[in-house]
């Protein structure tokens, strides 16, 4: 990154963070679909719980899946301490993320989960899990690139290679 100009670093950081926001959105879609599939499988007698252990220790609530959707899709408070990052709360710039998640579901449609045997739901769940791991790896690489850009930009200002006055003279970003 040292070979890039300051403006090139800023562009790389911005593009990297935009791509990361798209992948973050895709991950949220994948997690929501995995949660719904697990809830449907947990609801069925004889399939056993497929959900990872609930920190509250409560069993999956009985009842209609649609009625339970708000509880299924609500995240428990995180016990992991993370650095603060700006989170984009909109859909991605392209429709690719939603289409990718749809394609991974295969023939399993969320609107009609009861019509599918447990084996199909488990297969769809495993496809989503595998893809989520791959997306998470891509996202982590993008975050490392953005962090590297930030570190290099900071170093340049700290070492006097870049000046705040030059940035301010350019006017609003």
UniProtKB/TrEMBL annotation:
Domain RsiG-like: 2-50
CDD domains per UniProt: RsiG
Family matches, as InterPro entries: RsiG-like, RsiG-like_dom
Region (Disordered): 41-63
Name of the protein this chain belongs to: ABC transporter substrate-binding protein
Organism: Kitasatospora xanthocidica
């Amino acid at each position: 990154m040292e070979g890039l100009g300051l403006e090139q670093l800023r562009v790389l950081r911005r593009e990297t963070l935009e791509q990361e926001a798209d992948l973050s959105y895709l991950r949220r879609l994948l997690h929501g679909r995995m949660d719904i599939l697990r809830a449907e499988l947990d609801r069925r007698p004889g399939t056993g719980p497929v959900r990872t252990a609930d920190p509250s220790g409560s069993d999956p609530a009985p009842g209609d899946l649609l009625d339970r959707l708000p509880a299924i899709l609500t995240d428990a408070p995180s016990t992991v301490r993370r650095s603060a990052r700006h989170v984009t709360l909109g859909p991605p710039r392209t429709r690719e993320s939603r289409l990718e998640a749809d394609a991974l579901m295969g023939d399993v449609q969320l609107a009609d989960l009861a019509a599918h045997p447990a084996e199909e739901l488990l297969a769809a769940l495993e496809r989503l899990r595998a893809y989520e791991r791959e997306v998470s790896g891509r996202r982590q690489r993008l975050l490392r690139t953005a962090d590297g850009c930030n570190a290099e930009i900071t170093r340049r200002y700290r070492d006097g290679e870049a000046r705040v006055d030059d940035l301010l003279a350019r006017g609003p970003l």
